[in-house]
Amino acid sequence: MIAFEEARARVLQSVTPMLQSEMVPVHEALGRVLGQGAVAEFAVPNHDNSAMDGYGIRHADLHPQDAVTLHVCADLPAGDRLSQAIGAGQAVRIMTGAPIPAGVDCVVMQEVVQRVGDQVTIPAGQALGQNIRPAGEDIAKGALYLNKGVRLTPAQLGLLTSMGQTSVAVFKRPRVAVLSTGNEVVRVGNPLRPGQVYDSNRTTLLTALQALGVEVVDLGLVRDDRAAIREALERGASQADAVISSGGVSVGDYDLVKAVLQELGQIDFWKVNMKPGKPQAYGTLGQARFFGLPGNPVSALAVFLLVVRPALLKMMGVAEYVPPLLRLPLLEGRLRKKNNRVDFQRGLIRYDAQQPGVVSTGGQGSGMLSSMAAADCFIVLPAEAVDYAPGELVTVQRIDY
C-alpha cells in the first residue's frame, strides 16, 4: 500500500499530454484546451474611447475655480467618428465607447453638467484625461492574452471573438472507456432483488467524463466472469487512451478485474492509503492507461476526482491540472479520526458572518452517495490522528466536475 500523495504523483508522472491539435469553431470550443497561445493582432480597445456618456472637452478651456460654458458642436454616438478636431471653447456630446475626437483630452459625465440648447456648463474640478479609456488599456497589440493549456471558458471564448477569431486551435480530446462490474449490479429499469444495487457508478463516471470534455466509450455493465471482463478490457484498450472500471479491484473471490489486468497488462499499484478509496488499481493495458476504481459509489467518485481527473486533465493538455488546496475554519461540529489514512470527508463551503468556512455534509460512509451529492468540497484530514473543533482551520479541496 502506498501513500495517496505518492499514488497521484506516480499517475501524473506516467501520463503525457496529447499534443495533437485541431481547429474548431469558437462557439464549439467550450471546455476544450487551447493548443497555442493567443496573441493580439490589434489593441483592445483599438482607439481611445469614452468611458461614459458625457461631454468631450479640451482641458485647457476649463477654469481652475469657476464653471465655464462651452458650445456643443457635435453629437457622437458609439460606432461613429468625428472627422474634425474640436476647437477652443467647443464641446462634443459623446456616448460610452465612442472614439475620442482629436482635441478632446477630458470627458465630463453628463450628470454634473447643465445643458441649455447648444450650450453646456462644465463645473470646475475636472481632471486631465478623466473618463477616457486609452487604446490598449485592456490588451496591447502583440500581447499574449490567453495562455496555451487553458481550458476555455465562456468568458475566454467571448474574448477570442472580440479579437476577431472565428476558429481556435485546441488539443484533440483523449478517448476514455468506462465499464462497471459486479453480479450484484443491475441496470436501471430492472427490479431490484435482495442484495442488488443499481449501476450508479457508470452514470456518475460517464457524466463526469462528459463534463470534463473527453470522448467517452461506454463499455456497459459486465458480469463477474473472467472471460467477459477480459473481453471488455481488451475492447476498451483497443478503442481508448484510458480505461476506467468500477468494482473488482479489492480482495474478494469475485474481484476479478485486478486478476485480468495482471494477465493483459501491468499493475503499478492497487492499494492506496486513503479513505475512501483504499482498493484501487492503476496500470497499463497496451498503450492505454488503466484506472480500477472501487465499487462503492462514494469511493469510486472520490478516486475519480482526486486521482483520475487530474491525470485526464494532463492528458488533455491542461497546464494546471492539480487542484489547489484552501485553508478554511470549521464552522460547526467536530472532526475526529484515529486511522492512519488520509481522509477525504465530504463538506460544504458556507459563509458565516461574511467569512467563508466549511461544514461536513453528514454521514461519511463509502456507500452514502447522498453526502457526496450534497458536497462541494473535500475536507482533507491528514494521515495522523486529528481532532478539529469549530473555529480551527482545516484543509479543503473544492470539488470540480
From TrEMBL:
SUPFAM superfamilies found in the cross-reference section: MoeA C-terminal domain-like, MoeA N-terminal region -like, Molybdenum cofactor biosynthesis proteins
Catalytic activities: adenylyl-molybdopterin + molybdate = Mo-molybdopterin + AMP + H(+)
GO molecular function: metal ion binding; molybdopterin molybdotransferase activity
GO BP term, pick one: Mo-molybdopterin cofactor biosynthetic process
EC number: 2.10.1.1
Cofactor dependence: Mg(2+)
Domain MoaB/Mog: 177-314
Pfam families reported in the protein's UniProt record: MoCF_biosynth, MoeA_C, MoeA_N
GO cellular component terms given for this protein: cytosol
Keywords, alphabetical: Magnesium, Metal-binding, Molybdenum, Molybdenum cofactor biosynthesis, Transferase
CDD domains, A to Z: MoeA
Pathway membership: Cofactor biosynthesis; molybdopterin biosynthesis
Domain of life: Bacteria
Recorded family membership: Belongs to the MoeA family.
Alphabetical list of PANTHER family matching this protein: GEPHYRIN, MOLYBDOPTERIN BIOSYNTHESIS PROTEIN
Function: Catalyzes the insertion of molybdate into adenylated molybdopterin with the concomitant release of AMP.
Protein's UniProt name: Molybdopterin molybdenumtransferase
